Amino acid sequence: MICSRCRQTLEPGSVFWSLDIRLTAEQAMADPGENCGDSGIMDERLESLLERIRAEDVRSLENQVFQQFQFKLCRECRDIFTANPLNLELTPRKFTDDQ
Hints:
2 strands; two-stranded antiparallel sheet; about 15% strand; alpha+beta
């Protein structure tokens, strides 16, 4: 078995970490108390959505709403991942003598 990130061989009996990521699409819904407007407009939006769905490849549609990934990580790669799981750009902080 090898680490999915650094490709280091994970020796038999060694500790590794399983990382399972599930991405599921969700939609921000309007406030239930909010007026959704004309039902004709809603019907048009729904029909437009159905047309786009019909035109898409099934696999592409599936990937737009659900994806799943599984990784095996060594200790060092686990530490790197958990320190910044969203891979955000880290900007260096400047400290003054007062801090």
